Amino acid sequence: MNEFELIRRYFERPAPSALLGVGDDAALLRVSDNKVLAVSTDMLVCGVHFFADADPYSLGHKTLAVNLSDMAAMGAVPRWATLSIAMPEADEAWLEKFSSGFFALADVHDVSLVGGDTTRGPLNLCVTIMGEVDADLALKRSGAKAGDEIWVSGNLGDAALALAHLKGNIVLEQEAFLACANALHKPDPRVALGQSLCGIASSAIDISDGLLSDLGHVLAASGVGAVLDFWSIPVSEIMRKHIDQEIAKRFILTGGDDYELCFTVPASRHSDVLEIGVPLACIGRIVQGTGCIVMDGAERLAVESGGYDHFR
Ligand code: ADP
Ligand code: MG
């Protein structure tokens, strides 16, 4: 199987939302009237973002999911993706499963794979995703104002629990591990939620590097500070069981790979948020100033603010 057969077999699929998809020197895409293009890239590197023996179907899912999460965080409708792969050899069984996982999620969100690049090298997966959004309604990091409420979707910290179990830092029961492993390996990006927040949220970000780190980007971009109530942060039953351990608090606040949305809304829009129909929790307030403090009742929780940073 040569490079071009490989692309044709595993990555060339009908791309109904493109004028021209895989197979030429470039794809041709038409953006809808009155919309702008939202473009984002995320790379997954073997040994950094996943283990070499990672299940290829889940890896295909996650490679696209982390990119869809960025579209969600902008309130954009994802439309097109490119996929660049470096791999040590053309392992057909691996490619079959990887591409199945990728396309299964692409189909859920009506995303067309329109191009990419395929080369030999250490395993490395890179997606560029493109979506459409109203320029005026795109959810940016820079719109949070003092007095706004801070919200998050879903539960935080389960992916970090699964990773800690895999590394032998904590021990989960089998069933609990499987549930957390699902959060780690097959995140469900909040694409519909992001779109629902357009016109309501004053800012948004997806939580990929940990709540404090990602919220920190919103605070810096908006020139504001935040006060969080630790016990309002939503967690799973599994996390609840481990919450007395210091390490659990760290996973909730700084664990990565959650792919939930963190967003701010003016207090006057509180009831609009409640109507969205996705599990959401109000975890604090934007205040004047800088930085984020986390309250544990009346006490201030001592936390290391950093999330994952590749170069620290
Ligand atoms: P070129 O040499 O002109 O850059 P390539 O040989 O790299 O073209 O790719 C041929 C076609 O296959 C292009 O349309 C490219 O976008 C597409 N392609 C290559 N690798 C992938 C991939 N992993 N997934 C999807 N499309 C791909
Ligand atoms: Mg090329």
Protein model, in words:
Strand 10 (291-296) and strand 11 (299-300) form a beta hairpin. The chain has helices at residues 3-11, 56-74, 92-108, 158-166, 174-185, 191-197, 211-222, 237-242, 246-254, 270-274; strands at residues 36-45, 77-87, 112-120, 124-133, 149-153, 203-207, 225-229, 260-265, 280-287, 291-296, 299-300. The chain is 34% helix and 25% strand. It is globular. The strands form two sheets. It has a seven-stranded mixed beta sheet with strand order 6-8-5-9-7-10-11, with helices on both faces. It has 312 residues and is of the alpha+beta class. The protein has two domains: 3-133, 60s Ribosomal Protein L30, Chain: A, CATH 3.30.1330.10; 149-300, Phosphoribosyl-aminoimidazole Synthetase, Chain A, domain 2 (Alpha-Beta Complex), CATH 3.90.650.
At the fourth CATH level, what is the homologous superfamily of the largest domain? Answer: PurM-like C-terminal domain
CATH class of the largest domain: Alpha Beta
CATH topology group of the largest domain: Phosphoribosyl-aminoimidazole Synthetase, Chain A, domain 2
Number of helices: 10
Question: What's the main sheet like?
Answer: 7 strands, mixed
Question: Over all CA atoms, what is the radius of gyration?
Answer: 20 Å
Main β-sheet, spatial strand arrangement: 6-8-5-9-7-10-11
Mean pLDDT: 96
Helix content: 25-40%
CATH architecture classification of the largest domain: Alpha-Beta Complex
